[in-house]
Specification:
With 141 residues, this protein is mostly helical. The chain has helices at 2-5, 25-37, 56-66, 92-98, 106-117, 126-135; strands at 11-12, 19-20, 54-55, 74-75.
Length: 141
């Protein structure tokens, strides 16, 4: 978001099709409240997530659009050591046993984040971060 707010393209490693599972902090609070109110949740582990796939490319494009900018991300095709290609949680247990469902969509959550960010200074530290990754041998080139 800092890159977009500064009029620069966000940098995306790999091909941008890495999958992630985002959830709003409001939904996490709801899941915790449900777990505390249901004795059947005692001493049990639950994945708290949306269970929905969002690609890194979709994230960049959504933020760009919500910021009112038409900035396409720069896809590097470079890989970082240790990155996970896809990270999506199985939310079947929490849905079935606690009746948990997310209420805040990814886009709504991003809108809230962008509203919050209006009062924060957008520092673009991409060059510094990339230099550190290269120096530690965690990214090619």
């Amino acid at each position: 978001m800092s890159r977009i707010k500064n009029g620069k393209p966000p940098i995306i490693f790999e091909d941008g099709l890495q999958a992630r599972d985002f959830i709003s902090v409001h939904d996490i609070v709801e899941a915790n409240m449900l777990a505390m109110s249901k004795p059947g949740a005692n001493y049990r582990a639950f994945n708290v997530a949306s269970g929905r796939v969002t690609t890194v490319l979709e994230i960049a494009r959504t933020i760009s659009g919500l910021c009112g900018k038409k900035i396409e991300p720069e896809i590097t095709k470079k890989f970082r050591k240790g990155d996970v290609r896809h990270c999506i949680a199985d939310t079947g247990r929490i849905r079935k046993e606690l009746g948990f469902r997310t209420r805040v969509s990814f886009e709504e959550g991003m809108r809230e984040l962008i509203r919050w960010s209006e009062s924060a200074r957008a520092l673009d530290l991409v060059e510094k971060a990339n230099a550190e990754l290269k120096a530690k041998g965690l990214v090619e080139g």
